[in-house]
Write a structure and sequence with these properties.
about 375 residues, 14 strands, about 25% helix, elongated
Length: about 375
């Protein structure tokens, strides 16, 4: 029925052949699944069978015809013995269900009487007897695929090719399509189907030809889909022994493992180091407190003191002046005991010791503000160039 002898197909611009030295034979009446990952060569096989493409090397025989020597004039007559079902249906949108099926008979010259009797019979076979007058847009996806199958088999072809016929259908509808194809095969039609439908392949237990990177890696009868066909191909190693036999070792991508994503550690409180003062980036969202501060950032606090948010920290607006920085230098540490600028109006060391932490900070901030106001240049005074 179908025989490939050392067939290679390489498309222009491709570095890897779509089919590489492929040989197999399909007998009359068989139901064969072509399986494999996307790009493994399934569709290329079907295109070569219907003479849509020519092989780069090798010989192909279909229905007793050597496709390498058949003339272009005879190709339409050769295809009358084939039925093809596509994943996307390819129905004529401006024709009814009856007209779509009848059209395939009209183009090959069948009589009106034959068409009028054959079309209702095949529509009944595919379960569409009551929808002959419907248009494609009035049908569900499963019904459109049944119309496509009816069109493919109305001429009673010896060979039916199906390229992913259930790819666009839900599981329940797909089951009906597969049952229909199985009944067509039971009537004597050879069926070759390219598919990724693992559940149907496993259930039906037909012959399975598995392709990988353009080569046959498995050809079994009464077989299932297998695990390797569903996994992407990542590379191959091919060896040829002294007798010319080809061995292909296919490496497949490991299954992805799930787990926590490793992230680089991030400092909880990043700081800016300056000449004389270490100031953290303080976050004042929500409750205002001093938890985010380092002790170095709080002038004159005892090192053993631990600062926490409390009732007397509700207003820290004065602290903003303490931590104000210009472009050239940081605010220096405050030394109220030795700095003469703070002799006037500045609490003594004893007073500071008796204050709460927040009160001390406020007092020092106010002193800093007064000192800056005192030392500020007078209006109109020349302060030199500004960089």
């Amino acid at each position: 029925m179908i025989r490939f002898d050392n067939v290679t197909k390489q498309y222009r611009g491709s570095t890897r052949p779509a089919l590489n030295n492929v040989s197999f034979e399909i007998l009359r009446g068989e139901f064969v699944f072509l399986v494999g990952a996307s790009g493994s060569g399934k569709s290329s096989c079907l295109r070569l069978i219907i003479k849509e493409d020519r092989p780069t090397r090798g010989a192909i025989h279909v229905l007793g015809q050597n496709l390498g020597i058949i003339s272009s004039r005879k190709i339409p007559f050769f295809r009358r013995s084939l039925g093809v079902v596509f994943q996307d249906f390819r129905l004529l949108p401006n024709k009814t269900v009856h007209e779509n099926v009848a059209f395939s008979l009209q183009v090959i010259g069948k009589s009106k009487g034959y068409i009028q009797s054959a079309v209702p019979d095949v529509l009944k076979m595919v379960g569409l007897a009551g929808k002959a007058s419907r248009y494609p847009h009035e049908l569900s996806g499963g019904e459109q695929q049944r119309v496509a199958i009816a069109r493919a088999i109305v001429n009673k072809p010896a060979l039916l090719l199906a390229d992913e016929p259930t790819g666009n259908l839900d599981p329940a509808t797909s089951a009906g399509i597969m049952s229909l194809l199985e009944s067509i095969n039971a009537g004597g039609t050879t069926v070759v189907m390219a598919t990724h439908a693992a559940d149907f392949v496993d259930r039906m237990k037909k012959r399975v030809i598995e392709l990988s990177a353009g080569q046959i890696v498995r050809d079994e009868r009464d077989a299932g889909y297998g695990h390797t066909a569903a996994m992407p191909i990542v590379g191959d190693q091919t060896s040829v022994n002294a007798t010319g036999d080809v061995t292909v070792v296919t490496r497949r991508a490991p299954r992805a493992k799930t787990g926590p994503i490793a992230r680089p550690p991030v400092a909880a409180n990043p700081i800016i180091e300056t000449t004389d003062l270490v100031v953290p980036r303080i976050h004042l969202e929500g409750t205002t407190g001093l938890d985010d501060m380092t002790l170095d950032a709080v002038p004159e606090l005892p090192s053993q003191f631990s600062v926490h948010a409390s009732d007397d920290t509700d207003d820290l607006s004065a602290i903003s002046e303490l931590f104000a920085m210009n472009d050239s230098q940081a605010v220096p540490r405050i030394d109220p005991e030795n700095d003469p600028r703070y002799n006037a109006g500045v609490p003594s060391a004893q007073d500071l010791a008796s204050m709460t932490p927040t009160q001390r900070l406020k007092a020092q901030a106010k002193s800093t503000a007064r000192s800056r106001t005192k030392n500020a240049p007078e209006k109109g005074q020349d302060v030199g160039p500004v960089s």
